[in-house]
Amino acid sequence: MSEPTPNDAQRELIEGTEGTYLVDAGPGTGKTFAVTRRYGRIVDRPETDPDDVLLATFTRSAATEMKERIVDRSAYGLRELADAPIRTFHSHCHELLQEHGYAAPAHLGIDERITGSTRILDDELIEAERFREFFGGFRDDHPEHADFYRVLSSPDELLDLIRELASKGVFPAADGWYRDGESHLDGDFEAFKERFDAANEPRNDGRKQSVLREDLSRFGRDKTYRPDAPSKSALRGGRGTKRLDDDVADAVFREDREALKAFVHDAYLGYLRFALRRNYLSFSFLQLFAFVLLCEDERVREAAAFEYVMVDEFQDTSEVQFKLALLLSATDNLCVVGDWKQSIYSFQYADVDNILEFEGRLDRFAADLNADADRVPFDSPDPTRIELRENYRSTASVIDLSERAVATPASSGETVEAPLDDVVELSANAAFDNTVIEGIRHEDEHEAVLSKVQEIVGNDDYAVEGEDGEPRPPEYGDVAVFTRTRDYGRELLEVAAEHDFPVAYDGGIELFRTDPAKLLLAWLRILDADAERGWAVVLERIGYAVDEIDHILETGSYPAGPAEFRDELRDLESVGAVARRVLDRYGFTGDVADVPLHTVQSVHDSTTATRGDLIRHIERGVETGGTVDVSASAGDDAVTVQTIHTAKGLEYPIVVMANMNEGRFPPRAGGSSVIQFRDPVGLRRRKVYSEDGAHPHVYDDWRYDVIRRCLPRGYDEERRLLYVAVTRAESHVVFAAGEDPNAFLDGLPVAVEEIDPRVEPLDRGEPTDADLPFAVTAPDGPIGHTPHSLIDESVFEDAGERPEPGPEADPETRGMDFGSRVHDFAEAYALGDDVTPSNDHERRIVELLDGLSGDLRVEEPVTLPVAVDDRRVTLSGIADLVRVTPDRVEVIDYKTDATRRAQAEYRKQLSVYYHVLDEWFADRPVETSLFYTSDGTRERIDPLPIEELQDLVRAAEAARD
DNA sequence: TTAAGGGACATTTTT
DNA sequence: TGTCCCTTAA
């Protein structure tokens, strides 16, 4: 590909190497191209080299890409740039601390040191674990903060607050708060008053009450305030009042919060010390100490500062990162590049105001840093603003759509205002514009998406630009399906797998929601307390039907195999060994198994965890969705499925924006937040513990109930997410919704069509499992059926007609409990263990087994993949005994209960087995029979043909719907 | 236009 | 658990 010539705006950026620049670089405007050119231009000068230029990126992959692109365009090779400061803020801080950081904590009055052995703790779940440990000790040592422990719903909440404070540059010191940190905690009354006044303005020329007063019409509903709170009418004024009194603003804002601040301070400082003593630094603390070091140590600052600083994806930086960029600048040659409309990382403390209010913040931050010393060279900064307006990626139609998307209300009542004036209009550069923008809708949303993709592939109506610039029909690889949530992506993958649809998933999977983690958790629960929740998972995995599991759980008579395994696990010393054995048992290897193992090990080693702790750790992982990165490829020509966040920076000819459904985010798990930090209000307590009178109680904070109604709330980031998604598209955009399209989709100029999803079976040239009647080695199909699940009545279908118990089947010896003991005995005997029969049932088993020759196998679950209406399903079954001789195969199922001759049911069970073995041993006949231990008789059972099993699946599913 | 009651709804993104 | 939407009454 030939290197393009820069356009005028790009040239201004490339050539303007001296001074301060803010570059508004929308999607597809050649930002990386211009930045790397600029970098090359600087370092190719004889007087500068890569060590003089800091290029800070947000992700590691972005740093790598930058390096590669620079190598293409400069005199430097990849090796020479290997150690060049082109890296993320985090890794640069790490580097800085390794070199100069030993005494950094001393600047906060902390005695502990950062040493060569201090590790970065990059797993947030593990950090949360450590924090809980810390907090447990802290509570014991600090009874004076008891009121706050009462109202804190969990330590996680406090850790969140600490992270947020760190991201804003608010740090604790041994004596009070570092620098002007406390003013952030107090908040800015003037700024609050502005918001308050805006919300308190009567509407309709004074005929209608203010938004704020209306909002407060439910003041106190479902709440309990302390007695000193004003009554609702005192707060709002009587009927007909249009606005709140001005002094309400004062009343809610000014409050004695010394104790609250002291609590947060002590916990924050204590945790810093704890981490250092434990020899680790979190991501947040890396930046914290780097900042402190650069601020306090002039010598280090001079040594670490760069001639040129460039920051990529500036919209994703946090407040403290902005300040770090200033401290790392030896001159005012600072260039930040970004696009506020693509700021979607607020949960990582990205602060969109860094870019939206760049000039103001630059002024303010520089002044703050220079208040007591001459630290940063931005005394009277006068940044040049460059706008890259030419879009090289998308058609004009797509660009237009994206600009509407970022202005679309998320609910009927919402109005979107500023900062939309700041949208820099882009002009398109595409060779042709045949853009299709459409919406589809069906309740089977996943199927709808897949069949839409199928319709698109090879369809000239959706032509995309080929290598030669000419239109060509699209392929699977041209299509990306975006989702907001990983869950949705995972569901889509599952449905795609049913149809053998070529999809590749890119991004994180929820480790704790995978089978290895679930089974590990199940076994830990079994070990801990023979917990039913654990057994249910284990038994289901083996293939027991729901009814059977219920029965086993009721009676507590677990099958022999798993019970023995449990005893074996009990003998193991460490939780790590247990994990290894469990994962081994199920054949989990490689990445999928390594990650849980690693997690188990690191949690265990570091915190002397008990089994109960580990169970809770995994449970929390399931709740919070700890993830591990995967990139599951499905060959070259496959649809990419990913979350919008992982798609950032990428581009695709065709984008399907899935899951455009209604859905607002409810309160977070674990209860409502107790302590919050939000500009401009500062630190707030949402609940108050009080021992007024005889009734200690956690009260709601009436002040905060007023304040939060003045805070901006809205869907700005959701809109930006949509913007990012749409602007990935080069040519076509399809929105897909289930039953209920959301307000975004309603608000966009897109016709939503109800479609009839039908995913056609694919002919991809090679036989797949779905083409075969069955394939023994195939993995489980997506829909599992056990024989028992194929009937809609009870398993014991003819229980109503059971004959009088015969002499062999007295109540003592009947039923599952007894049956399972016979089964255990039979298995042990068949395996050659030294066991002796203790009743007639077992004696008859001995007679049977002694009379059999050949290879005996016991209790082996099998799965039979079959196609039903072009969907692949899996039938699974377990037989008690398989006997293989050179000329035939026998499948025998023991029946201990003479009264339960549910042959129709047994027949299905054996049929599954029959078909699997018939495939395995294609050269000899397979016979299926039942052995009644009560009278020692055997009964041949004719297996059902596959067609009848398929019919049963259909019937079972129809019954289920 | 305001007040007040009640029901439906829904658990995210990851350096 | 908070929010939004709908209903009913004043």
From TrEMBL:
One of its GO terms (molecular function) is exonuclease activity. It comes from Halorubrum salinarum. This is DNA 3'-5' helicase. Residues 221-240 are annotated as: Disordered. Its EC number is 5.6.2.4. Residues 4-395 form the UvrD-like helicase ATP-binding domain. Belongs to the helicase family. UvrD subfamily. The keyword DNA damage applies. It comes from the Archaea. CDD domains: DEXQc_UvrD. It holds the Pfam family UvrD-helicase. PANTHER family: ATP-DEPENDENT DNA HELICASE SRS2 (PTHR11070:SF2), UVRD / RECB / PCRA DNA HELICASE FAMILY MEMBER (PTHR11070). It catalyses: Couples ATP hydrolysis with the unwinding of duplex DNA by translocating in the 3'-5' direction; ATP + H2O = ADP + phosphate + H(+). ATP binds at A25, G26, P27, G28, T29, G30, K31, T32. Residues 396-649 form the UvrD-like helicase C-terminal domain. The keyword Nuclease applies. Keywords: ATP-binding, DNA damage, DNA repair, DNA-binding, Exonuclease, Helicase, Hydrolase, Isomerase, Nuclease, Nucleotide-binding. GO terms for biological process: recombinational repair.
